[in-house]
Amino acid sequence: MNVKTVLVLLVVAVATIFALVCVLLTRERAPGTCQHRPPAQEDADDGQSLVFADLTAEELAQVVRYLRTSLGVQLVEPARAQPSDNCIASVELQLPAKAEALQFLDEGGPRPRREALAVLYFGAQAEPNVTEYVVGPLPVPAYHRDVTARKYGGKVPYHRRPVTAQEYMDIGALIRRELGRAPRFLAACCESDGADLAALTTAPRGFRSGDRSTWFVLFHDVAGTGYYLLPVGLEVLVEHGDLRMSRWRLRQVFYNGRYFAGAVDLEDAFVAGALEVVRVEKPQAGDVLGSMRPRQPPGPPPPMQYEPQGPRYSVRGNRITFQGWSIAFGMSPYSGPRLFDIRFRGKRIIYELSLQEALALYGSNCPGSMTTRYLDGSFGIGRFAYELVRGLDCPYAATYVDRHYLVESETPKTNRNSLCVFEHDAAAPLRRHFSDSQSLYYGGLRRTVLVVRAVSTLINYDYVWDFLFHGSGAVEVRVHATGYISSSFFHGQGTKYGNRVGPHTLGTMHLHHVHYKVDLDVDGQLNSLETQDMEYELVKDPWSRQSTIERPFLRRERLRTEDQAAFPIGGRVPRYLSFTGPNPNKWGHARSYRIQVTSFAGEHLPTSSRMERAISWGRYQLAVTRRKEEEPTSSSIYNQNDPWTPTVAFADFINNETIVNEDLVAWISVGFLHVPHAEDVPNTVTVGNGVGFFLRPYNYFDEDPSVDSPDSVYFSSKQDVGDCGANPLACLPLAAACAPRLPPFRYGGFLNL
């Protein structure tokens, strides 16, 4: 090797070493792992919230064991029970009476007995019926009492029971068997033998009490996509009310605007050339209408929310605490999420905040959709709140909670990670001001909220249930609808009932109406209802008497009866409507919480309808009644299959009783009219499809309670805004210079179906 070569190699080596040193010196240090700091200790609970806790899996199993040995009747496993059998339909928590709960929570009284509510179907009795038992005490049951007559005035007729999964399976077998009688028609219309078609139930099931006849809409079923957008034009009416399944029958068939007595008549009309057939080819998975498979490769990850020092809230058992808030939470398998004993700064504001019912009412020129009025509580809003997808349904680092339930089974099931809790940065100020005159300063507070969320999948639709708790003392409740639209086969004057969204698909118009119960206890149990609204008065200016002024003023009124406090949907509601307590604030005004509703509800079913009383809660956007233990819910799981003689009729709650200085409940309806359009394919988006309400402090405090937030920011023109001691925002680059510790992604939502 010559000298020249050696020199070249030395120069290259020196240059390489220099470059590496520069990289090491200038390279930023990799962020360390975020160190979690435990949230500040809130007030002690000592397990009090457990009086509202859902039953554990072991408690559910104990109730089943007790019922099997104590009722003296043979019980069949629900998963294989026929209509003529006895079986356990469901078991859930029996909520304690409010007086007992408050005596325990507030006065140191005895803990209420922990009890379960069991619903049983007695199909093997001389008079088949549905019976409800309260079973207790838990965890080791020793007694049961029949509460059906006390709650409903007698036994619940058997035809009102919700349809079970086994009943649907038996109906499906009947439909496939009957469709097999029209093989040439099915091959011509749908490229099918009938076995590969999906059948979608409708409800209610007939036109009068005692009916149990259901229209089923048939769709192409393509693996990996929602079948709801693929109708083939065929619908069948199945009569399945008899206890003997051998007597079930297919009563009618609808196809492309025509009705037939059965599949044989349909086949005969086709063979005779007397039937117009619209050929609907079975789509392939790659190009099916409504496919949710990604069409683009993954890009850079979207923004992510994380907590540099760990969550600032605490979830212990069924209790959540967060910056002055305390909430007990639960989930009914039927009516869905419910919250209890909601306190802010140690004082109870709400005793109960719960979802009651969700209605979807359709219109179409096909029989299935035109008769559909789904009452989702009957299907199971809480039961079908499945596992949430981490990082999409909720923030990746949210806290996820399992829920146990027992419906149509003697074995408890668990929907893992089916409720999430997280603090959300709304990316907007809760309050702020920039002063550009006199003294120069900036003051403000970021709007972060605690969110409690669940998502229910009810056949085609997914409902996102949110409960939000603000630093201002406000509670926000909202629901978003997403998922697939339901559809009809497009024929005739279909666009009178919606929009065409596919070659043979009519997106059918429908209403979403959702009902909530809000048992406010504002500064105590005894409250009144006050309204405020504006009017103008014409006055002369007092300084010259030469001109007139249209001066706005407040019209205040205290409503005295339930009838005065029932506001029809679509009617005028006072802009300010508040629950007032007995005591004034510092400024002499009654401590109050205001109800503020955001809703775009469609028209309610006419009261002349024979089924309207079953959903009479939908008459009112807001109704305030006296609280009664015998009026715990506005709907019933039995209303769906017998809306003509409803088990619970909310309209009966309103009977002109006084509401002055009483324990009151606000019943709130929110909703919207949905006319599906092209952009609802593949799914309805949540944007613009959200409604809800606020519960806002109104003179409840002496000032905005968020002034005490440690997140407040203030700096003046005379301060060094980059000084971490003077401006908390200047601390963020250092505080957030860490990487979050994220658990590996897992999902088990398909395991418990």
Task: Outline the fold blueprint.
Blueprint: H1 3-26, E1 32-33, H2 57-70, E2 86-94, H3 98-107, E3 115-122, E4 129-136, E5 143-146, H4 148-152, E6 156-157, H5 165-179, H6 183-190, E7 197-201, E8 213-220, E9 231-239, E10 249-255, E11 258-260, H7 263-271, E12 314-316, E13 319-322, E14 325-332, E15 336-344, E16 347-362, H8 367-370, E17 373-375, H9 376-379, E18 399-407, E19 413-435, E20 441-458, E21 461-470, E22 475-483, E23 487-489, E24 498-502, E25 505-508, E26 510-520, E27 526-540, E28 548-559, E29 566-568, E30 576-584, E31 590-598, E32 620-626, E33 662-674, E34 690-698, E35 713-716, H10 732-735, E36 738-739
Parallel strand pairs: 1-36
Antiparallel strand pairs: 2-3, 2-18, 3-4, 4-5, 4-6, 7-8, 8-9, 9-10, 10-11, 12-13, 13-14, 14-15, 15-16, 16-17, 16-26, 18-19, 19-20, 20-21, 20-35, 21-22, 22-34, 23-25, 24-25, 26-33, 27-28, 27-30, 27-33, 29-32, 30-31, 31-34, 32-33
